[in-house]
Amino acid sequence: MLNEWVKSPTLIEHSLAVEAVMRRYALEYHQDPLKWGITGLVHDFDYERYPEPGPGGHPFAGSLVLESLAWPAEMREAILAHEAYTRVPRASLLAKVLFVVDELTGLVRVLAHMHRGRGGLGAVTVEEVLERIGDPRFFRALSRENLEIGLEALQMEPERHVAICLGALKAAWRRARRPGAPEAGRL
Ligand SMILES: [Fe+2]
Ligand SMILES: [Fe+2]
Questions:
Q1: Which pTM does this prediction carry?
Q2: Which of 23, 91, 168, 183 could bond to 37 as cystine, CB 3.0-4.6 Å?
Q3: How far is the CA of 35 from the centre of ligand 1 (A)?
Q4: What are the CA-CA distances from residue 88 to residues 31, 93, 107 (Å)?
Q5: Number of CB atoms found within 10 A of residue 87's CB
Q6: For residues 23, 25, 29 and 35, what is the CA-based torsion angle, rounded to 10 degrees?
Q7: Domain edges within the chain
Q8: Degrees (nearest 5) of the Cα angle 46, 48, 54?
Q9: What is the pLDDT of residue 151?
């Protein structure tokens, strides 16, 4: 489904990154890694076709598609709630985690690109990510406010969140770089 709906390599990369971190978080919270991973993988699948933020746009349009395919309500609600403008409450743990994961992966990606040729993602440290979060001029697409609200709802320290995200992304990156890996070159 993702390949059918998403053509942008950047969005595929983002989807895979969010999937990897969601899988890791599922283990953290003793949840189903498959369900959490797939929710992360598809959370933006309708974005290219329906990029408008509002009714009829992302992620409402995608949610209707998932509903027609009888996807579980918990996954659809988490996907609806990952964009703050939908005002869908982040009721489940899945929704709460997806929200903070989606917020952070973009910033990590930018840092990995900045380290290109000098270790890439492997060279990004927890300290550096925290420092960049603290600098509102860096990667303005990251809503520091949403991240703070989301982490508060989870009662999670930013340091721990960054460590989990970075650890999951680095592990996925190493797997993807193995010769013959299906997603080689991604992340
Ligand atoms: Fe989104
Ligand atoms: Fe996203």
A1: 0.94
A2: 23
A3: 18
A4: 22, 14, 24
A5: 8
A6: -30
A7: 2-177
A8: 65
A9: 98
CA of 102 to the centre of ligand 1 (A): 8
* Domain 2-177, architecture per CATH: Orthogonal Bundle (1.10)
Given this model, what pLDDT does residue 181 score? 66
Q: Which ligand is nearest to the CA of 86?
A: 1
Beta strands, E only, 27-165: none
Tokens at residue 4, please? 């059918």
Q: What is the pLDDT of residues 58-94, one digit of tens each?
A: 999 999 999 999 999 999 999 999 999 999 999 999 9
Task: Tell me, in angstroms, the distance from the centre of ligand 1 to residue 84's CA.
Answer: 9
Residue 105 alpha carbon to ligand 2 centre in Å = 8
> Which numbered ligand comes closest to the C-alpha of 47?
1
Between the CA of 79 and the centroid of ligand 2 the distance, in Å, is 9
CA of 58 to the centre of ligand 1 (A): 7
Q: Which residues contact 144 (CB under 8 A, 6 or more apart)?
A: 133, 136
